[in-house]
Amino acid sequence: MNAPVRRLGILITLLFVGLLAALTSIQYFQAKGIGALAGNQRTLLTNYGHERGQILVNGTAVALSRPTNDTFSWIREYPQAQLYSQVTGYYSYVVGAGGGLEGTSDDLLAGTADQLFVRRITDLITGRKLTGASVALTLNPKAQLAADQALGKRAGAVVALDPRTGAVLALVSHPQYNPNALSSHDITAVTAYWKAMLADTTKPMVNRAIAGNLYPPGSTFKVVTAAAALSNGIVADITSEVPGPANLDLPLTTTTLPTENGKPCGPGDKTTLVHALEISCNTAFGALGMQLGGDKLREQAAKFGFGDTLRIPLRVTPSSVPAELNEPQAAQAAIGQYDVKVTPLQMAMVAAGVANKGLVMSPYLVQEVRAPDLSVISQASPQELSQAVSPDIAAKLNAMMVSVVDNGSGHRAQIGGIKVAGKTGTAQWDKTKAPHAWFISFAPADDPRVAVAVIVEGGGVRGNEAGGAVLAAPIARAVMEAVINS
Asked: Is 486 a catalytic residue?
């Protein structure tokens, strides 16, 4: 054999080896990933040939599949579509599975998860039709409805947690959308609705509770600042004296940080830590921020979960406190401004951590997963995330937040016969627009069962805590009452 023929033979052999390797990689190593792509319509069409698992809240299906007489055999339905839209997400032949648990738990609901392998083999042998697993959620239906109704037509979000376990009791984001309009078998109508939702400037497809463009937390972050000040010995107790001038000089700048009303927070430009939180004194917490410095603020925030990438199993965008803060930036960060960015879930975790004696639990949304024969595939087990503060300091923060509701800006969160702890907030984000209104809370303060965070976009009043007190606090109260009375 001459050299050119030999080289050609080697080249052809290498090409065949390469082709075989590529096919092996696609079929055995990449197949699962390719099949899981939201837009893979071949996989979707195959999955439409069998019943998809249910998503359950307190035993009631909020997502289920019904048989049809058309090509698809089954249609996905959402009986309480908008109320749970950000939780369930959508399942659509046109745009795939996504937006919530339909996407993150797709393999379980479709019955293709590794945990269901034995079941699939049994189905194959017996000729039984493949059915997806059911996913039962931690949500409290009364709390979910209360959050939805109290938030009303306003844009914003509400998150409620069980501080003892981390279970998500309510997860509401407004505006909402209708997943039934995406699961329809009318392809033209689905395409039109999808395009309309993507073009909608109010962004109804974004789950504001855990993702999207994060928010400045405003004065609710003062709970974190107070925790850092107590933990680092900057102040000894909640009655310790702190600065409270009408204006706080900011080093390195020609500007000052003023109080909301332009007056000192106490006699002689002094006040106590507890009174500073009651009236949300900016200068007091700005001064504490400068004493602490950016590193200690960020370290304390991290202990509450800032910076963590969480999955509940929905992916949660990490909250953050910026690095390399100089003194004036630390003062602004200490009052929840500058570039501090949070999700409502994160601020619910702050409230829950204080409520749970300083221990922050990892939040979770799925209580258990059951196979079609009702056998339990997996069940949630509460997990500790971090010890944010000591039990002693948590007790002091608890007392301060109770005083905010009893004697300060959070009085609209009061519940008759029950001690409530809370903190109002107003967060500036655009000089030309109204600030956001915040409220974080937990109750009962002496035996906490629920921690809540509420944000109402553009619901604040520039320069005071009115928005958090007037709009956000009553929403939190409604959710806490729903859980306590469940």
From this structure: no
